[in-house]
Amino acid sequence: MQIELVKVAGRDDLERFIELPGWLYRDDPHWVSPLKFERKIFFDPKKNPFFETAEVELYLAIQDGKTVGRIAVIEDRTYNEFHKERVGFFGMFECIEDFSVAKLLLNKAHAWSREQKFDRLRGPMNLSSNHECGLLVEGFDSDPTFGIPYNPPFYKEFMERWGLVKVKDLLSFKLKLDKIPEYLARATKKIRLRNHFSIRRLDMSRFESEVQTIWDIYNSAWSNNWGFSPMSKAEFWFAAKEMKKIVNPRYCFIAEVHGQPAGFSLTIPDVNQAIKPLNGKIFPFGWAQFLYGMCKVDFWRVLTLGVKKKYQRQGIDVLMYHDTFQEFLDNGVPYCEMSWMLEDNEPMLMALRRLGGWEYKRHRIYEII
Question: pTM of the prediction?
Answer without folding.
Answer: 0.95
